[in-house]
Amino acid sequence: MIVFIFGIGLASFFNFDYFLLYISGLCFIFFIFLFWSNIFFRFFLIAILILIIAIFRYQLALPLNNESKIWFYNNQKIEFIGVVLAEPDYRLDHLKLTVSVREVIKDKNIFPVSGKVLIKTGLYPQYQYGDELRVTCKLLAPEPIEQFQYDRYLGKEDIYSVCYLPKINLLDFDKGNYFITRIYEQKNYWQKMIDRNLPEPHAGLFSAMILGARRGIPQSLNENFNITGTTHLIAISGFNISIIVTILIELAILFYIPRKKAFWLVTLVLIWYIIIIGFSASAVRAAIMGWLVILARYVGRLAKLNQAILLAAVIMLLINPKILRDDASFQLSFLALLGLAYLVPFFQTILRRMPENFGFKESLQTTLAAQAATMPLIAYSFGRVSLIAPIVNLLAIPAAVWLTIFGTATIFVGLFFPFLEKFIFWPNYILLFYLIKLVDFFASFPLASINL
Description:
- By secondary structure, the chain is α+β, with helices and mostly antiparallel strands.
- The chain is built from 18 helices and ten strands.
């Protein structure tokens, strides 16, 4: 598994000739059979073959440039027809749509094409998942933005064309997957319920934490979360899910729920949660990472969690090998879980005299382990180290856990008993108020974070 991951990483930085890979693979298969009786050579040659397969898999994921692909028309003004493929990404002053293109209209001729285009347009008129659009604009290839590799960030989702301020005509509705359409309709209902009962920025923060909604949180509040090292709390990632499910397991045990029942209960909660937030790729990866934690708890072998992490990483890389280099959430989730596997025992030793009331000790151990494992990558990727992150996370994560519990219960109760809306949102408002004031307070400290 490690060899496969290494091969994906190698291929993400270097380009290899397909013909040489093919010939090398055939040669190593021949040598494996030839030296099968020699254990050392057998495993060595199999490892090299896995390395070649990993490189080949990565290069298969790279885009082909021909007339059947929409990015072939980059740097041209064209007209195309496509369907909104994902939930619209609402920002404070604009809207982003991911459109799966079906046809290109050029010189009054229609050509079937495939591929995705990211469209940036105004907030109005609004569009939804499944809308069929006719778009006229100049396609551009994504480019890096300062130190941010925006082109690679979009490339991991197979988006190689962007379009700014296009002319859009709505052709038809409900052209997407029926099941996903119904999920988004339900999610929109919950979003409206949140907006009715919470002020801003509380509503935006609640939507991000509970529904994984891409809404505009004020830039100043986003910056304070960055300074205090608590950004992971407002994103659906394996980092926060792994911590939250660990604490939920401990709370279940605290209330005398048997470990086996607690495992299946939290597993069902995770599945239900991924359904209501819309099956986004990052959320599914986060849920898998988080589920590995409760699986390790269930079998009673947290120390063996590393094997499950590697297996999950290999499966994810087989599906999308580009996330290894270009998906920060995958990298942080991976490191956070390795921190839980290797560093939790270290912090258990240090904190052995601390009382275990209400899962506080467990929260502190998992928080410190995840923070220690991810801090080098955060410093490298984002150019910032938060000096007060461990303290703020210690104070924020318990509130985030209870907010997750109350929040999911609130949207569930609000679905069946809408007349209780005004009352059931109060606990959430109090927790959101606490989180906002907490990060605002600590972000104001001198040297709260260091820019590298």
